[in-house]
Fold each of these.
Amino acid sequence: MRRFIHLHLHKLSRPTFSPRFHLKHTAAAASFSSVQSPLDHKPQNQTSYIGPNSNTDFINHLCKNNKYEEAISVLCEQMRLKDAIKLLHFHNRPSASTYSSLLKLCLKQRALLEAKTVHKHFGLSGFVPGVFLLNRLLSVYCECGSLVDARNLFDGITERDVCSWNLLISGYVKDGSLQEARKLFDLMPERDNFSWNAMISGYVRHDKPQEALKLYGEIQIHDHLKCSKFIVSSALAAASSIRSVKIGKEIHAHIIRTGLDSDSAVWSALCDIYGKCGSIYEARHIFDQTTDKDIVSWTAMIDRYLEDGKRKEGFAMFSDLLRTQTIKPNEFTFSGILNTCANQNLESVGKEVHGYMIRVGVDPSSYAASTLVHMYSRCGNIESARNAFELLLNPCLVSWTSLINGYSQHGQHEEALRLFGLMLESGTRPDHITFVGVLSACTHGGLVEKGLDYFYSIEKHGLTQTVDHYACVVDLLSRNGRFEEVENMIKRMPMKPDKFLWASLLSGCRTHGNLQLAKRAAEELLELEPENGATYVTLSNLYASAGKWSEVENLRKVMDERRVKKKPGLSWIEIKRKVHVFQMGDLSHQRRDEIHGYIEKISRKMREEGYSPRTDYVLQDVEEEQKEENLFYHSEKLAIAFGIISTPEGTPLKVFKNLRTCVDCHKAIKLISKIAERKIIMRDSKRFHCFTNGSCSCNDYW
Ligand code: ZN
Ligand code: ZN
């Protein structure tokens, strides 16, 4: 189950900047570097002030006529900040508006050095800036995180206004220096909405919700101050993070009193707190009453449902949204839905959403499109995942990792490792989840030495090996029977092995019949999770195949004493958008007679192909014939039989199982794929198996 859990945690994070911006940015940087500096290198005939670029002649013409003011303004318009700053050195008396445009550009480009040059130039040219310009300079310093410069500047401003105070407070908040920010806040001669919100939202952002709520309480006392929508939203976020519906309701009452309840941002915050604190119906109630719903509120409400596990409601709302015609879903709406499809393996819904995205023309290189890669990989449709991936201009780490993991689980370990190489070449840095994918590719491919190399290379990428990586390597080694190395590895690892590691070891021991080490792994596992029936079953199977029936009996007694229940094996298959779930020996399905009839028919053919059931993996100490019987009614076989009788010939089938599939089923399904001429994809708790024409993509490693 572990790989899937990891991918689940690897939820796509929202992008901080668009790839396009990145492209533009680097292109601009390249053009700057080709510009000659008039300071380092004086042109011989003084005709050229600025290096080659379009408009160069025009700017040089302006400079020759001492029209620096105009030249700088043209350069500012073209966002050529560095060139404009160079001209500043020739200009003795720039006007306030020239300084202003330069600083505006500095702020936009977060150019600290250039801003400092402008700052120095004030002194050189004898210009005395007003508080407006100084505030702009202050905001560049704060934006660039240069708080020492900001503080020095602030201390030197004689006529500070409320904006100067607010800028520095926000600067400190952004930097995480909340104490400094609060000192200034308390010292301020007068505060406005912005000051209050800077402080309150700062507390929320830095995980100090109680402080935020205390300050919010103070505003109520200064009731001459009207609360802004930003302040109430921050206060709601604070209440939401401590999960207090009671405080949330108080703030809600205050919002209604001040008439802010019609605002969609405030609504989103309200919906958030009611949704998170378990009152999703209240959230929906507020949503329905909001008159100016926008896509943000729609997306928030849909996400609330999905996060709350209310998939049906979430999808229904998404359909409602599409029906409104006036409001269009955005990238975040799509990615929320697609992530849910990914986590719940709902490929058919995911495909529909994908189709819709194509129809409305969502940019195939966008963030929403990268969630398609994740969705298709998780649903086991590696071809479509690859197609979506190919369309991304700058695949992000999550897209690379999704695809690498996808290939790895599909037994295409070579492709997974090739992609990893390409990812490194592209300059994308792997994270620890990428390495889980890489290591499990090696495990599934049986590539022991390569896997060990990757394991030791983790540190070269600036990461440290986590317990997950150790578990992967233990898996790799124990599948290949290298138990001595496993034991050394466990001794050496700096953290305590987790249950996944012991479980991998246990199943390796089962494959290689290492009863002694299996016992130890099982004991450790039972220490960690005494209620997990799977451990007892595995150990008991091991004893059974060694013929140690008395040990099997003892184990069963322990299980009874501890009231351990075996986790029932479940398999499910989606036919015509309906999910059918099967349990071992399931007699409840309405088409059970046809299913059982088919199983009888195909098992006869399988025997003709030389199949004999692997009965040593059956827990019970029963007669051979009955064992065989049980094997034939394992849940995945039932699901596959049902799939075959309810779909046209040749249709590929996709089956999911909550546990690891057993050796017998694996062998049987290989034959079924050949006899029934079907491609069968099965995802068990470990990986994807793709069965075609008598063999499986995992090469019998799983
Ligand atoms: Zn089975
Ligand atoms: Zn397989």
Amino acid sequence: MSKKPKQHPTALHEKEGVSDSEITNTSAINSIKSKRQSQPTTDDLVNAILKGDITALSRAITLVESTNPQHLQKANAIIKQCLPHANKSVRIGITGVPGVGKSTFIEAFGTHLTHLGKKVAVLAVDPSSSLTKGSILGDKTRMEDLVKDKNAFIRPSASGTSLGGVARKTRESIILCEAAGFDTIIIETVGVGQSETAVHSMVDFFLLLQLAGAGDELQGIKRGIIEMADAIAINKADGDNLKKAKLAKVEFNRALHMYPAKDSGWQPKVMLCSALNEDGISEIWELIETYISEAKNNTFFEQKRNEQNKFWLLQTIDDRLKSDFYNASEIKKELSNQLALIESGKTTPFAAAEYLLKLND
Ligand code: GDP
């Protein structure tokens, strides 16, 4: 007589997606158990995060990044519980054009910090990643040593087309990393778009990586980004490039003095470094430490974080209102009608906007 599988495991295996052959041996039971264990509760995740469990931290960040409303609900509950344990880190933003050496720098800088006994988390803001199908931290091999370092946590950038959405996910991930005991958070961003503004508004210190170029050192660099920088590090100051880098340092120093003084009273500094040779890395960290201690002494540190929180409150409302508006089914339908009417010259942009906004009232 052929043995029928017992009712209990069969029901489970259907539910948990375990194959028929698997169910015939004990490993199937273990497999079911482990799959079950892979659905921890909010409390399980929070407790594990607070103990510094990286797997739990990754899972919570995945929930933050999810578009599933149930996941978001869970993410919000986790963040709420983690919040009292957050806020205790130094947050550093690092930007620079592709090729300037950001990942090489973060590898050297992060490793320097873990050797000093710090716990370093690296996150990224890269709003273009879903368009380009790549992310700036997607290729983890870019930071080979740091990835293997038990005191470092590297998270590829959240995907999403809206900068606001990506930035929100990063901000929430910062909270989770801090709750997990990371005392230094590095946020990387590409130096080509608006993402610097978003990153600047979530970090304590903003570092711009630059290259020494021939001729006009400021060519191609957005004024706004220089204005945001607390320090400029001229990377690849090695080999034949060292002389040029030293000249660039003089140029940047001169340029920085032309900008208005910062609210913090801090005069931005220009440094030289070679991420590849790990030169100048410890000096940059010392500079950041000096900045942080000065900003804490004159209360600017707290003040800036408060300002940032207010900014993010307003930003979150803006994002939410926009996404609610554009996702309303009636708006979706009518928007294309109104666009067609504009194209055929039958309405004006203002009349169409008025009409659509009233529809949503
Ligand atoms: P990213 O695109 O800004 O992240 O830049 P990468 O870190 O990927 O670096 C781009 C290239 O520049 C790589 O080939 C690196 O090896 C090289 N590179 C980075 N830092 C230095 C440096 O300090 N000196 C030299 N000579 N090359 C560097």
